[in-house]
Amino acid sequence: MKMMRQEVMTAPGEIVIRQVEIPEPGPDQVLVRIKRIGICGSDVHVYHGTHPYTKYPVTQGHEVSGEIVKCGQYAGKYKIGQKVTIEPQVFCGHCYPCLHGHYNLCEELKVMGFQTVGTASDYFAVDESKVTPLPDDFSYDEGAMIEPLAVTVHAAGRFPEMKGANVAILGCGPIGILLTQVCRACGAKKVVSTDISEFRMALAKQVGADAVANTQKEDFGDILLREFGPDKADVIYDCAGNDVTMNAAIQNARKGSTIILVAVFAKMANVDLAKLNDSELDLNTTMMYRHEDYVKAIQLVQEGKVQLKPLITKHFDMEHYLDAYKYIDDNREKTMKVIIDIDPED
Ligand SMILES: [Zn+2]
Ligand SMILES: [Zn+2]
After folding, report:
1. Between the N and C ends of the chain, which has fewer C-beta atoms within 10 Å?
2. 234 CA → ligand 1 middle, Å
3. What fold characterizes domain 3-145+308-341?
């Protein structure tokens, strides 16, 4: 019996690395040797016990890259040695959204690492259909960041008039910064990214924001006027997700324009719906991604239109999984993407 390591968060703030049997891939599955796991804000919520939809114990890991090492009997799409990433959505396939191609909105959606076993182990058996191939020249670090990039590709797609648009982004965490790059790649005329952290703003500027501004030092409405003129933004993305940012968007948006909520609100919102209505704003939302978003995300990186590496803050090996969370807590302001090297060899 061959054994492997598997991460388990047994309770908020507690992680054990246990030994379990290496799984055998089912007939339609492949076995992936996991190389990298990215940690994101949702994982940090699980660590703090503030994720509303996760029970313990849970094995984490939904931002992932690896290499196929074994194929099931009917899994013939990829060869052994293929670099891959994994789509972490587990969906029913028969509800209304699933039957209409919107499996990201499955009525019974589960996500690996939250409601079902995540990929934080040496090996992971997964349906071949959930695997997306990575180009040979991709690093495993980049591969593990396709998931958050796909979130932003999907979010950009929620505003079909992106070509030539003036775009304002509230919040320069990893998602805000990736979205900044994706909007530019999708033909936006000008992208202005805002935050309250100079560090995050500088990074947004470094990877492609046309302008950045600090909403703590300057009124958001003044920023819009200065950067875009009297017509302000065509679309405002909220990648921070709190009453302050959403109200800033609603109160300063051009009448008849669009606001898209990307971030997850931690609590029930207290926002100005009267103003939203008075300005006839389109308040749009976005939820995860679908396969085509993964494919486009990979393409954007390959074409050099999106840079992922500047967002990587630090690496930890699997034995120091818990230290990664402590580091994030201690360095919140200056942390973008923290990566766990499951297999540090590659
Ligand atoms: Zn994530
Ligand atoms: Zn479904």
Report:
1. N
2. 27
3. Quinone Oxidoreductase; Chain A, domain 1 (3.90.180)
